[in-house]
């Protein structure tokens, strides 16, 4: 009997010892003042994005404890009026891994820094198509879907529902005009059309006069199947719903929307991710939170599989066919090797429920159905990944 106890104790003492592997990640947020909008009912959380990265950091640490792997994160916030490039250069001196929450021009400037060459950067906030196309960079990955991915997802729903006669109201903020341009591109791609389009330029206080102003504003649209709103700052769109001259569906930035993430996503284990996030941060996860979570988890997954911490090894693995990220969206997420975009399904939802998830059934692709969303390889002019 004593021999059995001895060998059990000896077995406990000779557990394998792993060499400690540590990955340091930087999170840089460039604080851009939000333009004045008609309503402040939906304030942006102060830790939007950062909270998602923190949740993913905890996920990485949970797995890392069993493998002798450790992760740290340093977060910095800088005003756009200051010098975000200097801060980025300082952070890159400490780590070659940065998650960026910044406007597209700032992200591009950071990617072009001498200190960023050979680094691995993740765009978690800018949906600009150009960053995945003519302005792509080999050191820049995109965990946030492009505007084109979201508008392609919406266009698939419009085709499926046979809402082919469409009109659009677009705001004047840069994000609105970019989204409107993506909508036009997606409608053309899927054989749809806009029969009329108007620019939102009303000065009236919609909180008091929406029921009078909106019907007049939409009266000359005539009849149509659905009204698309390009209002990415959520300025006027909330007042358009249920106030149009014609009683028709509202889609786009309000109403039925194509979203990276939404609290109404509950399938595929998403409810557990939502619950863990809410327990840690006392609010719902946003799309930028999810993109930052996916960026941090991408690094964690690559380190777990390769047991390496150098950017060259991790980059090669992330772009390889072996890489898969469990993203709680029903399908494994992978990166496009021609522009660094994270492939992922796009939720079609309204504030109360998930309606569909694109790509929809019937929208086929020769290699990967997820590539029916956004810039496909033949469409891309990105040369940095070649």
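Sequence proposed for the structure above (386 residues):
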């Amino acid at each position: 009997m004593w021999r059995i106890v001895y060998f059990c104790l000896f077995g406990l003492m000779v557990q394998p010892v792993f060499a400690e592997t540590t990955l340091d990640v930087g999170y840089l947020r460039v604080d851009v003042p939000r333009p004045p909008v008609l309503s402040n009912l939906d304030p942006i959380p102060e830790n939007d994005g950062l909270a998602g990265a923190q949740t993913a950091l905890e996920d990485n640490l949970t797995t890392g404890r069993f493998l002798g792997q450790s992760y740290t994160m340093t977060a910095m916030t800088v005003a756009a009026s200051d010098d975000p490039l200097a801060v980025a250069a300082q952070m890159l001196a400490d780590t070659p891994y940065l998650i960026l929450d910044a406007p597209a021009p700032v992200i591009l400037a950071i990617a072009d820094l001498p200190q960023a060459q050979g680094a691995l950067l993740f765009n978690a906030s800018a949906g600009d198509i150009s960053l995945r196309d003519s302005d792509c960079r080999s050191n820049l990955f995109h965990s946030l879907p492009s505007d084109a991915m979201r508008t392609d997802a919406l266009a698939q729903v419009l085709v499926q529902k046979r809402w082919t006669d469409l009109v659009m109201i677009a705001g004047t903020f840069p994000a609105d005009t970019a989204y409107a341009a993506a909508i036009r591109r997606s409608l053309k791609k899927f054989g749809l059309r806009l029969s009329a389009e108007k620019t939102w330029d009303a000065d009236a206080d919609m909180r008091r006069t929406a029921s009078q102003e909106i019907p007049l504003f939409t009266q000359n649209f005539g009849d149509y199947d659905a009204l698309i709103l390009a209002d990415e700052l959520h300025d006027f769109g909330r007042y358009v719903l249920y106030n149009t001259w014609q009683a028709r569906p509202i889609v786009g930035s309000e109403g039925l929307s194509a979203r990276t993430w939404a609290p109404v996503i509950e399938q595929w284990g998403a409810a557990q991710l939502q619950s863990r996030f809410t327990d840690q941060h006392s609010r719902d996860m946003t799309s930028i939170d999810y993109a930052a979570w996916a960026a941090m988890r991408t690094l964690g997954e690559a380190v777990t599989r390769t047991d390496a911490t150098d950017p060259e090894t991790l980059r090669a693995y992330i772009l390889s066919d072996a890489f898969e990220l469990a993203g709680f969206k029903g399908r494994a997420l992978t990166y496009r090797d021609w522009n660094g975009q994270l492939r992922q399904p796009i939720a079609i939802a309204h504030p109360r429920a998930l309606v569909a998830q694109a790509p929809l059934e019937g929208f086929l692709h020769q290699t990967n159905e997820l590539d029916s969303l956004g810039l496909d390889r033949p469409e891309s002019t990105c040369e940095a990944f070649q």
